[in-house]
Amino acid sequence: MTDRWIVAGLGNPGPQYERTRHNVGHMVVDELAARTGEKFSVHKQSRAQIAETRLRPGGPRVVLVKPLTYMNVSGAPVVNILKFFGAAPDHLIVVHDELDIDFDTVKLKRGGGEGGHNGLRDISKVLGTKDYLRVRVGVGRPPGRMDTAAFVLKPFTTTEATALPLLLDTAADAVEKIIDDGLTAAQNSVHAR
C-alpha cells in the first residue's frame, strides 16, 4: 500500500448542480486544487475527475477526486481510485454536505453511521467498511417542511453564498490538517472554531 492520500469531494455532475448544497464536497476539492494550481482531468477507468498534487512542498502525494456519477452511486468511482493508486481506506478522506450540522460549521470524524447520506452509504457499501475519514461540511436543515432532497439540490441563499468562501476555506484547511497532523489534532483545531 502507498502513503498517498485520496480526497473525494462528493457532489452531482452537471452545471445545474454546481452551486447547490449537495455539491459542497466538489467545491472543497476545487479549493484544494486551486491552492496548488492543479487542474482536474477525467480518469476514465474510474468515472471521476482527478487532480494529483501535494498540498504543501515535500508533503505526501494527494489525489483530489470528483466522481462523475450521481451522488447515490459515488462508491464505485471512489473505490476504483483507491485501487488504482494502491491506497488503503485509512488514507481516504470523503468531503460531503451534512444536514445535521449548522451552516458554516465543519466537523471531522472517522467511521460511524452515514446519517441518511446516500453518497456515504454507497461508498461504505462498495468499500466494505465505514472506517474512513469524513470532513462534514454543515449545510443546515431545510426550513419548515421543505423536503430534504429538494433542499440539498437548491443553491445557497444570498446570505449563505456570502459566507461560503470562508466555509470552503475552513473545510480545505481541515483536509490539510488531517493529512499533516492526524485526525485528533485536526479535530482539536477545527472543532474549536
From TrEMBL:
<protein>
    <recommendedName>
        <fullName>Peptidyl-tRNA hydrolase</fullName>
        <ecNumber>3.1.1.29</ecNumber>
    </recommendedName>
</protein>
<dbReference type="InterPro" id="IPR018171">
    <property type="entry name" value="Pept_tRNA_hydro_CS"/>
</dbReference>
<dbReference type="InterPro" id="IPR036416">
    <property type="entry name" value="Pept_tRNA_hydro_sf"/>
</dbReference>
<comment type="function">
    <text>Hydrolyzes ribosome-free peptidyl-tRNAs (with 1 or more amino acids incorporated), which drop off the ribosome during protein synthesis, or as a result of ribosome stalling.</text>
</comment>
<feature type="site" description="Stabilizes the basic form of H active site to accept a proton">
    <location>
        <position position="97"/>
    </location>
</feature>
<keyword id="KW-0378">Hydrolase</keyword>
<dbReference type="GO" id="GO:0006515">
    <property type="term" value="P:protein quality control for misfolded or incompletely synthesized proteins"/>
</dbReference>
<feature type="binding site">
    <location>
        <position position="17"/>
    </location>
    <ligand>
        <name>tRNA</name>
    </ligand>
</feature>
<feature type="binding site">
    <location>
        <position position="70"/>
    </location>
    <ligand>
        <name>tRNA</name>
    </ligand>
</feature>
<dbReference type="GO" id="GO:0004045">
    <property type="term" value="F:peptidyl-tRNA hydrolase activity"/>
</dbReference>
<feature type="binding site">
    <location>
        <position position="118"/>
    </location>
    <ligand>
        <name>tRNA</name>
    </ligand>
</feature>
<comment type="function">
    <text>Catalyzes the release of premature peptidyl moieties from peptidyl-tRNA molecules trapped in stalled 50S ribosomal subunits, and thus maintains levels of free tRNAs and 50S ribosomes.</text>
</comment>
<keyword id="KW-0820">tRNA-binding</keyword>
<dbReference type="GO" id="GO:0000049">
    <property type="term" value="F:tRNA binding"/>
</dbReference>
<dbReference type="GO" id="GO:0072344">
    <property type="term" value="P:rescue of stalled ribosome"/>
</dbReference>
<keyword id="KW-0694">RNA-binding</keyword>
<comment type="subunit">
    <text>Monomer.</text>
</comment>
<dbReference type="Pfam" id="PF01195">
    <property type="entry name" value="Pept_tRNA_hydro"/>
</dbReference>
<dbReference type="GO" id="GO:0005737">
    <property type="term" value="C:cytoplasm"/>
</dbReference>
<feature type="binding site">
    <location>
        <position position="72"/>
    </location>
    <ligand>
        <name>tRNA</name>
    </ligand>
</feature>
<comment type="similarity">
    <text>Belongs to the PTH family.</text>
</comment>
<feature type="site" description="Discriminates between blocked and unblocked aminoacyl-tRNA">
    <location>
        <position position="12"/>
    </location>
</feature>
<feature type="active site" description="Proton acceptor">
    <location>
        <position position="22"/>
    </location>
</feature>
<keyword id="KW-0963">Cytoplasm</keyword>
<dbReference type="InterPro" id="IPR001328">
    <property type="entry name" value="Pept_tRNA_hydro"/>
</dbReference>
